[in-house]
Structures are given as structure tokens and as C-alpha cells.
Amino acid sequence: MRLGLRYDMRAPGFGAPIGPLYAAAVEQTAWAESHGFEVVHLAEHHGAEDGYCPSPLVLAGAIAGRTSRIRIDLSAIVLPMHDAVRLAEDLVILDIIAGPGRLSIVAAIGYRHREFEMFGVEFTERAAVYEEALEALRSAWSGEAFTYRGRPVRVTPTPVTPGGPPIHLGGNAKPSARRAARLGYGYQPVTPELYDFFVEECTKYDRRTPGPFRRHRPGFLHVTNDVERDFELIAPHILHQSNTYAQWAAERPGTAPNGPWSGYENAEAIRKDPAMWIVTPEECLKRARELGPDEELQFHPLLGGLDPDLAWSSLELFASDVLPHLDDVRPVLADIPRA
């Protein structure tokens, strides 16, 4: 089992101010690195009413400058929203700042019509734009000259990670699995069933059998000594997060909601969802020990604009009362205090 963090930086009006949220994300990641966390995942969307992070590369740069070991996973980059050459250059510099092997990317095709309109990309052409961008990234990181949209291009300097940061394709439908297998990429879907389908597709292209599916659990984790008190504080943020994702998913008919966020009728529905862990240290330890070796125990500390102080209380209680009893998690690496 590994430990991870996720940030998307939503900041609804009833939540914490946006500035303290970004500062907390950087400091929490540095703190998490010192406590054996292996990865931080940073997400991207554009034009969201609640300020969902539109520029995870900038946040990743701040985190890379504050840390030295934790892996930074851009999960996901909405690829058609970017100029592929400019993105290739930015990712090279981020790879250099972070150091070899620390940066990875989940490339998403996108699904919100509003975002495609915002960047002048035809929604019906998104698959072609997406695959063109993937090929451009590969070519750019070779350091050699190539042609992109009829223009001569060369991206320098070259990445410090050989071949550039690894790219996995994201997705929540079978076409994304087929594309990843056909193009020779790794795959990070929203369900293990889609990953199993990807493995089957890989055999059709004589690809080496991929490794096991990396499941991230739970949908939300908060550790507290007073579950009822903190539930009342957290529930509005979970409702905002999950119901907004459900609304976005509904914009594309036939598409399942993104990950665990299927929407809730009310706060009481959150209590019944096994993916929502608002638990005591003892219960957290019990559930964590049930996770498999290929699973990630993931915190989303600032979900829906949660108060950073409340998020810190959960992380610090986890470190003091849960982490020392998880035998398969590496020990504290350094003493990086909370800022």
C-alpha cells in the first residue's frame, strides 16, 4: 500500500479563501513527503464557477520547489485545451525542476463542452486533436526537430527523465482503453473493469501485459476524534464536490459520473456511502489494513474548499495515531514541520 494526496483546488463561496488553500496544498505536500507519502495528484479543469485549478503545472512547480522526493502526478491534464508544443516545453522545465522520475502525467481527452468552446476546439474533433498532441509530446521530448501542423519545431532543453515524463491515458469508457492499447501508452481509468478491458486489448497489439490496476481509496478520508462534529463541518463540502461532478457528467449523455462522485440527495446519503471515510484513528487503521498491496490510501485534504486547519487536524492525527501502526508504509524520512 502507498499513501497519496489529491488536490483540485475547488473554492466555493462558502469555503476557505483561495489563497490559503493554495498555500496549504504546497505545505501539506511537503509535510506528507516527510511522513512517507509517495505521490500527490493534481487535477485540471477550466472555467469552473468554484475556481477548480486551471493550471496544475504552476502548482506542480511550487510543490517541486518545496519538496525533493514525492512524485507529482498531473492527473489529469486535459490535453486538447493546450497548445501541444507549449505544453511540451512547460513539462520539460517542470521535469528538470522536479528531478528525474518525479513527474508523471495522466492525459485526458476532456468531456465538458464549455471547456472546448472556451479554447476554440471542436468537440467532435477532440479525438484527433488529442492523438495529435500525444504524438507531439513524444516527438518534442526526443530533442530532435519535427513537423507539427506543417511547422518546423524543436523543443529544447530535453527532459532529465529519459524519454520524458511517463504518460498514461485517462478515461471512463472503452474507447479510451482501446486507444491506450493501440498507441502503446499506460492507462489510468476510473474503474478496475475498464483496466481489465485494457489488458485484454493489449494482447491484440502484442503488448507486454501491464502491471496491476492502481486503485485509489477511499473517495474521501478524514481522521478525527469527534466524527459527528467534523461530519457536520465536512458534509457541505462533499455535497458540493460530488454534486458538481455529477452535473458535469450529465452534460455528456451516456457517460457515467467521474469516479465515486455520483451525487447525493442530502448529507445523510454521505453516511451510507462506504467510499466516504470520516472515521476515528482506530477505524481508519482497521480499514487501511484491509487495502491490498496495489492500492493507494488517498487523502483529499482540501476537498471542496475545506478549512485548511480542519484538514491539518486530520493529517496530523493520521500521522500520530494511524501511520505508526501501518507496517507496510515506509517510516518518516525527515522532520519537516507544519508551516
UniProtKB/TrEMBL annotation:
Pfam families, sorted: Bac_luciferase
Organism the protein comes from: Nocardia rhamnosiphila
Alphabetized PANTHER family for the sequence: BLR5498 PROTEIN, LUCIFERASE-LIKE MONOOXYGENASE
Record key words, sorted: Monooxygenase, Oxidoreductase
Top-rank taxon, per record: Bacteria
Lineage: Bacteria, Bacillati, Actinomycetota, Actinomycetes, Mycobacteriales
Protein's name according to its UniProt entry: LLM class flavin-dependent oxidoreductase
Family annotation (SUPFAM superfamilies): Bacterial luciferase-like
Keyword Oxidoreductase: yes
Domain named Luciferase-like: residues: 22-290
TM annotation in the entry: none
Gene3D superfamilies: Luciferase-like domain
